[in-house]
């Protein structure tokens, strides 16, 4: 499996993903012109020489090198809410108190806000279910942090992820159903398609501008505030392991949580290691296997932008004292790496392994429950 920047040849696969992901996945909509423009914007972003975050959007695809099939996608927005407002609800409490009458009432409210304007966002993660395989979901999630670690100047100090909220396979959202009944008579699929395509003017025109008292909502709507779609739970656990936290901000339409972290404190960024590549003949690595015979898997990427490539491998050896990463020649070639080139990597597993630096190997990486792979996340 190889991660690379998206290209126009990937349009049919991206359109298939837009269909497969279903309503609620606002990062992609099944609109050919929209997807063509999204791909071109990504190509332009990778080609830019950005020295600070702007309107760049980076979209990657996960490819099976043997078949050429695109099996998933993942992305990063450098700075959100600049060209088009990014709205959230913030969950907080208000207190109604009368000293004279001796009455005290604390209630939950949702206030519309633009709190995350200017932040970077990791988004558009989808692993096509027919292509699930070990480490594919992790690669799609963590590869963004390798790219951000190498190109920190392109991204904001705060990184967010909008997690998909609760909705059914046929596009019914309990939270939106309540809003639709009381404020905006549009079905959930239509709303998410409008927002995904950047047509969010109706938010300022039709959405309620005053605090929403949650105890006045239906029980179903109250019950999903801050909750994630069942297929997004593995992605949320993975981001929590990276240091992301929910601070009360939820999506306007399905009430899914938005989580945040400081760029420099994201675990995979802080623990990533830049090193020099030594290309060796296939099968001659000095790597010492673990007692069970399996090597320590790492995620490794080159340090290019337009030519970015990344993968997961257990065929690498890191010589910490020389800051040298030994890679088999066939693997190095697939990543566009030559002898003496720079690379960046992070360990994928928890156990210490000779050949990996203690600072990287000693840190445990929580595994998704029952080794569940990601289908789609954000």
Automatic annotation (TrEMBL):
EC number(s) per UniProt?
2.3.1.109
Is Secreted found in the keyword set? no
**Annotated InterPro entries:** Acyl_CoA_acyltransferase, Arg_succinylTrfase_AstA/AruG, Arginine_N-succinylTrfase
Q: Name one GO molecular function term.
A: arginine N-succinyltransferase activity
Q: Name one GO biological process term.
A: L-arginine catabolic process
Cite the Pfam families for this sequence: AstA
What species is this protein from?
Answer: Marinobacter nanhaiticus D15-8W
Record bears the keyword Isomerase? no
Residue span of region Disordered? 355-378
Mark out the compositionally biased spans (Low complexity).
360-371
What protein is this chain from?
Arginine N-succinyltransferase
Keywords in alphabetical order, please. Answer: Acyltransferase, Arginine metabolism, Transferase
């Amino acid at each position: 499996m190889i991660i690379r920047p998206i290209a126009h040849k990937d349009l049919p696969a991206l359109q298939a993903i837009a269909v497969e992901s279903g309503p609620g996945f606002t990062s992609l909509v099944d609109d050919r012109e929209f997807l063509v423009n999204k791909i071109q914007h990504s190509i332009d972003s990778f080609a830019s020489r950005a020295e600070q975050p702007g309107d760049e959007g980076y979209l990657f695809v996960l490819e099976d090198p043997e078949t050429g099939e695109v099996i998933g996608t993942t992305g990063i927005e450098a700075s959100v809410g600049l060209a088009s407002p990014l709205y959230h609800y913030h969950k907080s409490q208000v207190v109604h108190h009368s000293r004279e009458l001796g009455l005290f009432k604390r209630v939950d409210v949702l206030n519309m806000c633009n709190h995350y304007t200017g932040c970077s966002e990791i988004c558009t993660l989808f692993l096509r279910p027919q292509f699930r395989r070990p480490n594919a979901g992790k690669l799609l999630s963590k590869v963004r942090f390798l790219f951000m670690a190498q190109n920190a100047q392109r991204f904001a100090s705060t990184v967010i992820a909008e997690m998909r909220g609760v909705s059914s396979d046929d596009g019914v959202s309990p939270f939106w159903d309540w809003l639709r009944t009381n404020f905006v008579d549009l079905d959930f699929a239509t709303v998410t398609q409008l927002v995904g395509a950047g047509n969010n003017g109706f938010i300022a025109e039709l959405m309620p501008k005053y605090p929403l008292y949650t105890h006045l909502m239906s029980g179903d709507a109250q019950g999903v505030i801050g909750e994630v779609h069942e297929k997004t739970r593995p992605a949320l656990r993975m981001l929590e392991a990276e240091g992301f936290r929910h601070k009360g901000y939820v999506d306007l339409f399905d009430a899914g949580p938005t989580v945040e972290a400081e760029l420099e404190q994201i675990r995979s960024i802080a623990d990533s290691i830049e090193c020099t590549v030594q290309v060796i003949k296939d099968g001659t690595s000095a790597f010492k296997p673990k007692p069970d015979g399996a090597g320590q898997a790492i995620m490794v990427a080159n340090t290019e932008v337009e030519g970015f490539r990344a993968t997961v491998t257990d065929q690498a050896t890191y010589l910490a004292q020389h800051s040298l990463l030994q890679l088999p020649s066939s693997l190095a070639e697939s990543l566009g790496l030559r002898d003496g080139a720079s690379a960046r990597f992070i360990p994928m597993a928890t156990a210490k392994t000779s050949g990996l630096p203690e600072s990287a190997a000693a840190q445990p990486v929580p595994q998704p429950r029952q080794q569940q792979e990601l289908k789609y996340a954000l």
